[in-house]
Write a structure and sequence with these properties.
Number of helices: 13
Number of strands: 27
Shape: elongated
Largest sheet: 8 strands, mixed
Radius of gyration: 29 Å
Structural class: alpha+beta
Distance between the termini: 125 Å
Length: about 575
């Protein structure tokens, strides 16, 4: 062959390679990662703890939920895993593999395969792909450390791994060990990760995930799935019906089981006594939860994490946690939160998690009084103040895109639907009372909660026919439907006038320089005790309250800690006393 002919062949091959690369690159940029919904997974997982390894084979069915026919489907798994084979009907498919940066995975990136199907898939039509992939699942927290999270805190939060002494793996949002398809999101971009995960869960609410896991002899699988022996040697079949309510999670260890009427605990043999302590706490706390929310619909499930450095994780009625030595009061607080989920279910995060935190506050009050319960509630305030300030700060180059206001009714940010929701339910309790809350919880039906105002209507309903309806619109508008930030109270004036009966009337003017209206406690204190009254103070406004007091008062304090506010350093005022009028 002549040199010129060789040159032509090489040139043609280079041109073809350039064209192929350009087409693949164009496909990578143009592909619609939201086009397909994963409707069914049927996966078989083989673990290799010595190598922190996982090998997966199986089938996944995808449905085209876009409005146009699709030829490319995107499959994403953790970047610590790698694609090995993707076929349809035994025929290998062409696919472009690339690393795709996204914080839905603890490694901070994904192994993405952009797969070209044999024929375009019409809207609402499905395709079933045969997959093989594998690799390692080490304990990494790249996504957290690269945004400045201290290593110790990051690894405590992102604890997922496969190992010889500790195997515990969550799923999307932690470890993407089964295929998904989402656009890239970053933890540095406000609530983008939380919003993307919430949208994905909503979309996959009817998806069925079936996984057969074959652990080594001597250990068993504990999970928040329906689990049965599947007939394969030593394998356990896990079935997750819908991916909206729970984060699919499995833990593998030499578990023993402790079964009680209210709780089931999977624990290590050496922690049997600790498991019994948790069971006793659950049995003692269950009647109080039932009093508020009705009978248990399912047992509380506690699954031990065999590593004390891991942070507890809850999803639905399941609590994954190290078993720790705690005093009985602390254990009751721990189980109170999760027990609520066994009796009461809502599809709205601020209701689902907020009510659970409310019961922790109620439990602490029953244990040690209101002051101690409010001290417990105070742990949620510092971070809440910080993010509310960031959300309401003027947009500029420094904070643009970092945080936006988060209405409680629609937020996907845990800090809001847990921390702020805890305060909101405590304030509602103070506004309407325990009986009204219990009636609302008894009347609540998750399938009827189709509008944000549903729970407001239940709380406004009169206790008896003929009684007036409560007006809670002002509260829900400022605290639930919109994110108006927080109030900031200060006492503008306080003076006490002595009466002829040698008692006092204390008149207090409270100013709210914050941006949310609230009904706040005002406490008058003297040498012999204190008295409290409540006053509603509008945002950027004032409220006046008069409080009778049996002796000469010394000071007045606005807010006992039940209302979150921007600044609590200006809440105390020394009282001036005037002589009685003649």
């Amino acid at each position: 062959m002549s040199a010129r002919a060789c040159f032509r062949i090489v040139k043609a091959r280079l041109l073809a390679a350039v064209v192929l690369f350009a087409c693949c690159t164009q496909a990578a940029w143009a592909v619609d990662r939201q086009a397909f919904t994963f409707t069914h997974y049927d996966l078989h997982v083989v673990l290799d703890p010595a190598k922190q390894g996982m090998e997966v084979r199986g089938k996944v069915t995808v449905r085209n939920d876009s409005n146009v026919a699709q030829r490319q489907v995107v499959l994403q798994i953790s970047s610590t895993l790698a694609w090995q084979s993707i076929t349809v009907g035994g025929n290998a498919l062409q696919w472009l593999g690339q690393e795709y940066t996204s914080d839905i995975d603890h490694a901070g990136s994904l192994s993405e395969a952009i797969v070209t199907l044999p024929e375009p898939i019409a809207p609402r039509a499905t395709a079933t792909l045969d997959l093989e992939y594998g690799g390692a699942v080490p304990r990494v927290s790249t996504r957290l450390t690269r945004i400045g999270t201290p290593e110790e805190l990051a690894t405590r939060s992102d604890w997922d791994q496969i190992g010889e002494t500790f195997t515990a793996v969550r799923s999307v949002g932690y470890v993407t060990w089964f295929p998904v398809s989402m656009d890239a999101v970053s933890l540095s971009d406000g609530t983008a990760v939380f919003d993307a995960l919430a949208a994905w869960k909503h979309r996959h609410g009817s998806t069925v995930l079936e996984v057969a896991i074959a652990p080594r002899p001597g250990v068993s699988v504990a999970s928040n799935a329906d689990a049965v022996a599947d007939g394969q040697a030593g394998a356990t079949k896990l079935t997750f019906r819908g991916l909206a309510a729970h984060v699919p999670t499995f833990v593998i260890a030499a578990f023993q089981s402790l079964e009680r009427p209210a709780v089931s605990i999977s624990h290590l043999a050496e922690h049997t006594s600790l498991a019994r302590d948790y069971a006793v706490a659950a049995e003692k706390q269950a009647p109080a939860i039932i009093d508020w929310f009705g009978p248990q619909r399912e047992k509380l499930r506690i699954i031990e994490l065999p590593d004390l450095t891991t942070a507890p994780f809850d999803t639905g009625a399941f609590l994954f946690t190290p078993l720790r030595q705690m005093d009985p009061a602390g254990l009751q607080l721990t189980v109170a939160h999760q027990l609520v989920h066994t009796s009461f279910v809502s599809n709205r995060s601020w209701i689902q998690e907020g009510t659970a935190h409310l019961m922790q506050v109620v439990t602490r009050e029953q244990q040690a009084g209101r002051a101690e319960s409010l001290r417990y509630l105070d742990q949620f305030q510092p971070q809440l103040v910080q993010v509310e300030k960031a959300a309401l700060a003027p947009a500029d180059a420094a904070n643009q895109g970092q945080m936006q206001p988060q209405p409680l009714a629609s937020t996907n940010d845990e800090l809001f639907y847990r921390s702020k929701a805890a305060f909101v339910w405590v304030m509602l309790r103070d506004l309407v009372g325990d009986d009204a809350l219990k009636r609302a919880f008894a009347a609540y039906r998750a399938d009827q909660d189709l509008q944000p105002g549903y729970v407001q209507s239940l709380l406004e309903a009169p206790a008896l026919a003929g009684q007036p309806k409560r007006d809670l619109e002002w509260f829900f508008d400022d605290w639930v439907y919109r994110d108006k930030g927080l109030p900031d109270f200060r006492i503008e004036s306080a003076y006490a006038r002595a009466t002829l009966l040698k008692t006092y009337t204390v008149t207090v003017t409270v100013e709210n320089i914050g941006t949310a209206t609230a009904e706040v406690p005002v406490l008058v204190r003297g040498k012999g005790g204190e008295r409290m009254a409540r006053v509603r103070v509008p945002a950027k406004g004032r409220g006046v309250v008069r409080i009778p007091f049996p002796q000469e008062p010394i000071e007045v304090v606005v807010n006992d800690g039940s209302v979150p506010e921007m600044n609590v350093d200006n809440n105390t005022f020394k009282i001036q006393t005037s002589a009685p009028s003649q």
